[in-house]
Amino acid sequence: MAFFTLGCPVSFLVGYLADRHRRIPLFALIIVLGEGACFFTYFTTTYTGLLVTRALTGISVGGALPLIFSLLSDMFGSEHRQLVSAMVGGGMAFGQMLAGFVGPAYGWRLPFIIVSIPAFICALLMLTTLKEPARGGQEAAVKEIGGGSGGRVQDSSGGGGNKEWVERENGNIPARKAVCVPDVYKPSEDGWETFKQLLRNKTAMLLFLQGLPGCLPWGLVYVFLNDYLSNDRGLSIESATLVITLFGVGCFGGLVVGGAYGQYLQGKSSKQPIILMAVTEIIGCFPLFYLLNNVGEGSSYGVALLFSMLSGFMASITGPNVRAVLQNVTLPEQRGAAFALLNTTDDIGKGAGPFVIALMVTAFGDRQLAFNVVILGWLLGGIVNGLIYFTVEVDEAACQKIVR
């Protein structure tokens, strides 16, 4: 809980800064602060020390995501964003699986060293090898006027303002024309106004909302399912752990396939990835229902493993597409704030999710019933994602219109 408590406010602060300042030095600083705490977790010997280091590690996760997707959206256009988002999610899933394999064999401390040292190396490489990408340089509308691959965006205000220009061979031209668009798309130098604009963006708002119920089943799987399968359904601890492990393997596969197929669908129509997001999240409920209600001493263990992997696969397809769609319907100078909001709604679900589930168990007096209700979070999330079908084309077109 401490991890998410500090991560949320840091996410908002970093999102604000990411939309107004150079992102690569800021990203390197966030990595050093957060992963430094992760590194020292290995050496802590007290509960207080563990609480502090884990809370500070929240700086890394809470602050990194707005920066990652703000940067990547200016490195890759909409024709690549699903795939790139899948690669980011795949890296996270790989780290979780690595910790799951290393922890039981070598103790819970070692994964903190294995994860943090490469992060320091990445921070150094970023500072020494990467250049700040042009903000908005990968937008289709900017490429149409020749400001994409060769142009760069610079802050012309001389201070912390947000007057951005695309530089071309024939001189500086404004990257934003005065066009008739809703207020939600008008860039603002006021950070709070940017957040309010995002909340008036229908597609963005639906993307934020879908994460609240959608995160509840994830909390069930990673916090409660192992204990439930071993104590309530009669599996051995080792067998229950393998079920959870294969769920993670399915997640990795879902991220890869979801990113690749979502990118293919994006090339046809911006509506088609929305159908994929909604349908697969809803389908992911059913194999998880099977695990809760049918797995036991007399059932096929192989079927349980298959259904666990299938559930993880289906539920993970949504992630890379959600992040790609959010990039496509927000302005380049709003994306730090946009991903801060998305990260916050996810953190609320992840951090408060186990607490909410525990309350539901107490209220129902039956873990099995409570857990079955929790799975419906993916159903609700899928329905909310489905509503984006009716808003995404309008919001994406309006966003590109103001970028021209």
Descriptive report:
Helices cover 73% and strands 3% of the residues. It is mainly α. It folds into two domains: 2-132 and 194-403, MFS general substrate transporter like domains (Growth Hormone, Chain: A); 140-188, no CATH class. Strand 1 (153-155) and strand 2 (164-168) form a beta hairpin. It is globular and about 65 Å long. Residues 143-163 are annotated as: Disordered. One of its GO terms (cellular component) is membrane.
Radius of gyration: 22 Å
CATH topology of the largest domain: Growth Hormone, Chain: A
Binned, the helix content reads over 70%
Secondary-structure-based class equals: mainly alpha
Please give the structural blueprint:
Blueprint: H1 2-18, H2 23-41, H3 47-73, H4 81-106, H5 110-129, H6 140-144, E1 153-155, E2 164-168, E3 171-174, H7 191-199, H8 202-214, H9 216-231, H10 237-268, H11 272-283, H12 285-293, H13 301-316, H14 318-328, H15 335-364, H16 367-387, H17 392-403
Antiparallel strand pairs: 1-2, 2-3
Helix pairs in contact: 1-3, 1-15, 2-3, 2-5, 3-15, 4-5, 4-10, 4-14, 8-15, 8-16, 9-10, 9-15, 9-16, 10-13, 10-14, 11-13, 11-14, 11-16, 12-13, 12-16, 15-16
